[in-house]
Amino acid sequence: MLSIFVEVSCGRYLKDECTFCHVYEPLMQMPKSDWHLTPEQAQIMADKIRQVEVLNTLAQHEINLTGGEASQNPDIVDIFKIFKTVTPNVCLHTNLDIKSEETKRWQRLVDIMKQGGRIDITVYPTVWEERQKPLLREIIALQNKLMINIVFESITDLEKQLGLMAAFFEQMDRNFPEVLELLRSYHEKVRYLAENNPDCDEAIYTTHMGNMDSFTRSGDFIFGINLLPAFGMDEQGRRAMASNPFPKNPYLLECVAARGSIEIMTVQQNGNLTPCCDVGNLKCLPNFGNLFENTAAEIEAQFETSRRIIEAGIGKNRANLKGDQAGQWMEEGIPPYCV
Ligand code: SF4
User: Which structural domain, as residue segments, surrounds residue 137?
Assistant: First the structure.
């Protein structure tokens, strides 16, 4: 998958409702004049993606338009159409914190869905009842796929959000038995932990959850769910070693790029590439090229050079984690939780 940042602003920053926003600090470093990716910039990105084999391959799997809040980009429908010329699989991630069906933001999402784009959401309990729930019903009427992200601060928070999702699908007019079954099984498992061991560590949580499916299908409707722990940031805007729900243990990231495989590439709005789901808060130093500044050949050549630096850095991280230097940044500039 290629994850492309298309917008810096997000109304939720202003309301300060996201206790730990992991994109605010890195995105706010962009000058206000550059907050919206333009169709012209999107065209340059699209042309370059076609020329770099590894990027084109990832794009055929999926291009995910994100931000900030992608629906706040006034040109998002044109940008969507440009990326649709690269791949049929373009989706857009939204906070769905939208006041009504009359808003421009909602109309943009409808336009995108009508042209075959998929809209995915992150659940926000503070605006769920009033804003997200009615519009999610409309989304499900307009598209036959949905991916829901649940970002959780604690086991109790996760239990609450899964409960909202299970209740939502229970109340739908249309039947989604398999989706409901999946959500109920997630909810039951997490409820047990919330009642019996809400402060468990990550190993207990992972073992308890087991190998649960993330996707299911009800008729022609495909549903996916992603449970993502929230993170705090240090004063330099870098992700913390441990996640908020599991503060006792370092939350490690296994770097597949260091092993020579690129499964996901994030494209920042300034064109910078990172071969993982970095939103700018991982601060990984090795350079994987820039879609605006580098030729396709330069980008391809940079991959191997940077892979070797990461390989060296994660070797040092592993040694530090075994000793008493966990969390130490080394000269390679690899986040200390990457292994
Ligand atoms: S080492 Fe860099 S590229 Fe690899 S997972 Fe960590 S931040 Fe991402």
Answer: 2-312
